[in-house]
Design brief:
By secondary structure, the protein is α/β, with parallel strands linked by helices. It is built from 14 helices and 10 strands.
C-alpha cells in the first residue's frame, strides 16, 4: 500500500500527452512523465485494500484480471511512496524481466482490477512502474549483473521476441550459457518490428539487449532455423533448445477482391516502416507508404490502431477503420462487474 488515506486525499494524475497535431509529425513516444515527487504522490493512492486484485493475474469468465506476472504492486507502490526507489526496483524486478517494455505497451490489467477503481479512479500503476525502471537505469541499479557461477550447460533459444528474451534472461541468471537465434536483422521480434516507435522507441530495447549481452547472453541475427541454420546443428551443439518462434502467420480474409493490389497484412506494413525508420529515417523509400492515399484499416484492436497511427504519420489523404464488434460501452455493464476486464 501507499498512504492509508492517499486515495481520498489525491486525485489521479497521468503524464501529459503531446497534442495530436504535434505528435503525428514524428514517430517518437509522446508522453511527458510526471516529476518524481508527483509520481510518489500517485503511489500514495495505493490503498490498504486487503485483497490486492491488481496483482492476482487470475482468469475470470475467460478473461485475465490483474497482472499476469503477479507483480508485487502494493509493495513497490509503498516503497515508491516512501522514496525507497532502489528497493521498489528490486521488488519490481523480482517478478518482471522487462518493466521497461511492459510499462510502455502493457494494457494495464492491474489498473482495471484496482480496488480504487471500484468507486473512483485507479492507481497509476503503469506509470509508477515506468518511473521506477527509468530511475533504476539512471542510478545504475539496472546495470549488468552477470551470474557468479556457470553450469556449463548450453541452451539455444530460437526467437528473440518477448518470450525468447524472457527465457534467455531467466536461464542466464541460473548460470546457463544462452545463445539466442533471431531470423530478422535485429533482435526484438514483435517488440522491434510489430510495435511502432511511438509506443516503444527502439533505443529502449537496445538498452536492455546491451545489459543482457554484458551479462553473458549471446545473440545471433539473420539466423532462420531450418533454412540458413539447420535444426540438427542446434540439437548437436546444445544441451537444450527452447522454441519461442512467435506467431507471425497473419489471419487472412477470404473475400472477393482480396487479391487486388494495395492490400497488406498489418505486420508487413508496420515492419516495413520501422525497418526503414531504423535504417535510414524513412529516406530509403523501402517501406509500404500510405502518403497521399485513402486508407482502410480492417480491425479495431491494438494492431489496427497502430496501422492508423502509422498511416497518419505517413501523411495519408484519409483513413477509415472498420471493426466487426459493436461499440463498447462507456461504463461497465451490470454483467461485467469489477474486477473483470472491462469489455
Amino acid at each position: 500500500m501507499g498512504k492509508a488515506t492517499g486515495f481520498m486525499e489525491y486525485e489521479r494524475e497521468e503524464s501529459a500527452a503531446i497534442k495530436p497535431k504535434e505528435r503525428i509529425k514524428n514517430f517518437d513516444e509522446f508522453h511527458t512523465p510526471l516529476s518524481l515527487e508527483k509520481q510518489r504522490t500517485q503511489a500514495a493512492r495505493c490503498m490498504d485494500c486487503g485483497v490486492p486484485f491488481c496483482q492476482a493475474g487470475m482468469m475470470i469468465k475467460g478473461m485475465a484480471s490483474g497482472c499476469p506476472l503477479n507483480n508485487l504492486i502494493p509493495e513497490w507502490n509503498d516503497l515508491l511512496y516512501n522514496g525507497n526507489w532502489q528497493q521498489a526496483y528490486n521488488r519490481l524486478h523480482k517478478t518482471s524481466n522487462f518493466p521497461e517494455f511492459t510499462s510502455r505497451v502493457c494494457p494495464a490489467l492491474c489498473e482495471k482490477a484496482c480496488t480504487c477503481g471500484l468507486n473512483g479512479e485507479a492507481v497509476c500503476t503503469k506509470e509508477n512502474e515506468k518511473a521506477i525502471i527509468e530511475k533504476a537505469y539512471e542510478e545504475g541499479w539496472a546495470a549488468p549483473k552477470p551470474p557468479k557461477v556457470r553450469t556449463d550447460k548450453r541452451i539455444a533459444v530460437v526467437g528473440s521476441g518477448p518470450s525468447g528474451l524472457a527465457v534467455a534472461d531467466q536461464l542466464n541468471r541460473r548460470g546457463h550459457l544462452v545463445t539466442v537465434y533471431e531470423r530478422s536483422d535485429r533482435v526484438g521480434g514483435l517488440l522491434r518490428y510489430g510495435i511502432p516507435n511511438m509506443k516503444l522507441e527502439k533505443h529502449v530495447i537496445d538498452r536492455k539487449i546491451e545489459v543482457m549481452k554484458a551479462e553473458g547472453v549471446t545473440f545471433i541475427t539473420d539466423a532462420n532455423i531450418g533454412e540458413n541454420v539447420k535444426a540438427k546443428k542446434l540439437l548437436e551443439e546444445y544441451d537444450s533448445v527452447v522454441l519461442a518462434c512467435g506467431a507471425s502467420n497473419p489471419r487472412d480474409i477470404k473475400a472477393p477482391g482480396r487479391d487486388a493490389n494495395g492490400i497488406y497484412f498489418a505486420v508487413d506494413f508496420l515492419k516495413s516502416t520501422t525497418k526503414s525508420l531504423l535504417d535510414s529515417g524513412l529516406t530509403d523509400g523501402k517501406y509500404i507508404s500510405a502518403k497521399g492515399k485513402n486508407v482502410i484499416v480492417i480491425g479495431g484492436g491494438d494492431t489496427g490502431n497502430d496501422c492508423v497511427g502509422t498511416s497518419i504519420r505517413h501523411g495519408c489523404k484519409s483513413i477509415m477503420q472498420l471493426e466487426m464488434m459493436p461499440k463498447p460501452p462507456v461504463d461497465r455493464l451490470p454483467n461485467n462487474p469489477w474486477p473483470q476486464w472491462p469489455k
